[in-house]
């Protein structure tokens, strides 16, 4: 289950996802809003997961089944992609496809020169900047205890100063946590120093790790946009459903399992997967009975997410 999609991305068009961190969620953070759910393996140690050759083979096989070439090959696993010690070589091998390569990272390991070196090969990198305040950073991102706020910021600024590709930042706002005016002004100041091509503001649109997480109201969202714009940032809002126009491989079961491992599947999208793969409409219910996926309701919408059955990790509430 290395590849999934392509899925419609609010930032990248049609994005073929690469899940380079296998199994249950392995991450340096346990963000309260994470759509993948609880962090089950909490670590700072980079390790070997899939070999670069395995990732290349999986991407090539997936591409061979698609009717159209995706806009990006995107490392967006159920965890932190830079924990993969082979990330640089995997990117290098995938460059031969001619398709732009993106990495979505929480930026926690940018203090490591090897991580910065790996990301330097990507065409597009998104870094997470949810708070420019240590207390709020710990509350919303719940970083590994050995991570320091100053170390996180230093790595962020060092990478931004040398990266030659398209750099984006993303701030996900949670009601009552990081959506206050003063906090957003501090955050905008930090992001302005990074000088990204785009500074994205987003809100929870899929089931979060903690049930207590709520999206900000319209007033807070509008205020945040004005604060970012006034700071000179090219700000864009990511507030809605991306659409259901997903890619397909002809194997609905595998498409559902692969996508739901890293990307909760909304009801409209599930319908498209089944239609495009000419699969029976009872397949989601069958996978629920087999305990491969589970159904959840979030903001009155139905989603299916991968049902990992190991011991519960950090982040459930």
Automatic annotation (TrEMBL):
The keyword Transferase does not apply. Its cofactor is [4Fe-4S] cluster. PANTHER family: FEMO COFACTOR BIOSYNTHESIS PROTEIN NIFB-RELATED (PTHR43787), UPF0026 PROTEIN SLR1464 (PTHR43787:SF11). Residues 10-242 form the Radical SAM core domain. The keyword 4Fe-4S applies. One of its GO terms (molecular function) is metal ion binding. This is UPF0026 protein. It comes from the Bacteria. Pfam families: Radical_SAM (PF04055). The lineage of its organism: Bacteria, Pseudomonadati, Bacteroidota, Bacteroidia, Bacteroidales. Keywords: 4Fe-4S, Iron, Iron-sulfur, Metal-binding, S-adenosyl-L-methionine.
């Amino acid at each position: 289950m290395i590849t999934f999609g392509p899925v419609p991305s609010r930032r990248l068009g049609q994005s073929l996802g690469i899940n380079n961190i296998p199994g249950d969620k392995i991450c340096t953070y346990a963000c309260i809003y994470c759509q993948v759910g609880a962090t089950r393996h909490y670590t700072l140690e980079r390790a070997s997961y899939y070999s670069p050759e395995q990732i290349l083979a999986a991407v090539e096989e997936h591409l061979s089944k698609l009717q159209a070439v995706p806009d990006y090959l995107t490392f967006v696993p159920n965890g932190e992609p830079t924990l993969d010690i082979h990330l640089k070589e995997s990117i290098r091998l995938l460059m031969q496809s001619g398709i732009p390569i993106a990495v979505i990272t929480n930026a926690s390991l940018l203090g490591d020169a090897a991580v910065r070196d790996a990301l330097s090969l990507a065409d597009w990198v998104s870094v997470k900047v949810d708070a420019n305040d240590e207390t709020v950073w710990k509350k919303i991102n719940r970083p590994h205890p050995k991570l320091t706020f100053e170390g996180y910021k230093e790595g962020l600024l060092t990478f931004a100063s040398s990266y030659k590709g398209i750099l984006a930042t993303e701030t996900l706002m949670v009601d009552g946590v990081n959506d206050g005016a003063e906090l957003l002004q501090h955050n905008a100041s930090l992001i302005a120093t990074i000088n990204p091509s785009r500074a994205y503001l987003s809100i929870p649109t899929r089931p979060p790790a903690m049930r207590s997480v709520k999206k900000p109201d319209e007033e807070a969202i509008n205020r945040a946009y004005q604060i970012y714009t006034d700071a000179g940032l090219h700000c864009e809002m990511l507030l809605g459903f991306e659409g259901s126009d997903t890619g397909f491989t002809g194997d609905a079961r595998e498409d559902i399992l692969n996508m739901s491992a890293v990307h909760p599947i909304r009801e409209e999208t599930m319908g498209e997967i089944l239609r495009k793969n000419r699969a029976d409409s009872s397949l989601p219910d069958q996978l629920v009975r087999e305990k491969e996926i589970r159904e959840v309701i979030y903001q009155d919408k139905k989603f299916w997410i991968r049902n990992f059955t190991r011991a519960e990790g950090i982040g459930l509430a």
